[in-house]
Amino acid sequence: MMKRILVVEDESAIREMLGFSLTKAGFRVDEVADAEQALLAIAANPPDLVLLDWMLPGMSGVDLARRLRREELTAALPVIMITARSDENDRVRGLETGADDYVTKPFSPRELVARIQAVLRRTSPESGQEVVQIGGLALNPVDHRVLADETEIELAPTEFRLLSFFMRHPDRVYSREQLLDRVWGRGIYVEERTVDVHIRRLRKALASCGCDRFIQTVRGAGYRFSDKAKV
User: Fold this and answer.
1) Predicted confidence (pLDDT) at residue 89 exceeds the cutoff of 70
2) How far apart are CA 62 and CA 2, in angstroms?
3) What mean pLDDT comes out for the span 171-191?
4) How far apart are CA 5 and CA 17, in angstroms?
5) For residue 209, which of 75, 141, 148, 191 is within the disulfide window of CB 3.0 to 4.6 Å?
6) Is the pLDDT assigned to residue 170 strictly greater than 60?
7) 143 to 126, 130, 135, 146: CA distances (angstroms)
8) Which uninterrupted H or E stretch holds 110?
9) Which of 58, 65, 68, 59 is nearest to 81 (CA)?
10) How far, in whole angstroms, is CA 134 from its chain's centroid?
11) DSSP, residue by residue, 91-106
12) Is pLDDT above 90 for 39?
């Protein structure tokens, strides 16, 4: 089945270019010019992924991304931010809003398509896998739910994938580079600091049930998941 992409971009020339490139790549594409139209489009027919410009009239792309993450029906909707802002702090801010990836203008359509495909792969449900349970946490990859002693924890797609990987490989230390390869996928350029952003978001989500202690920083080496006390 063809994946549907919602392009949210106020510049008509860029919007048309994106629509043409993505349609040529085999996606179904809907195009809107601002956040208000995007919310209406998502409510009427939820897409598989949102391609979201940072600078929009009215509500900014950053604020729209935050709103999508807050609402239950769109909390797991994959979002890729597009922006002319290339400063590292801006990239981190974009990821901290809940975006799954961040693409800086100018970009090649080929790179963008590769990034979209990578995000869709890693946010697709992992069927045929059993529930993983460690230290009171239970992760079900089929229905994309995480429970802590029967209390559900809301996670964005990338944090879910990160937790899933950690819980399937407990008590092992992974470097940022290794996590990028295993969770984000080989061949896709993502900065190592991206891992730190998603680790912070995962810890924040797990803190509500006191499970943030399971995500342990190993100085000079990386991160590990363990329900044992850090030594």
Assistant:
1) no
2) 27
3) 78
4) 14
5) 148
6) yes
7) 9, 11, 20, 9
8) helix 109-123
9) 65
10) 23
11) HHHHHHTT-SEEEESS
12) yes
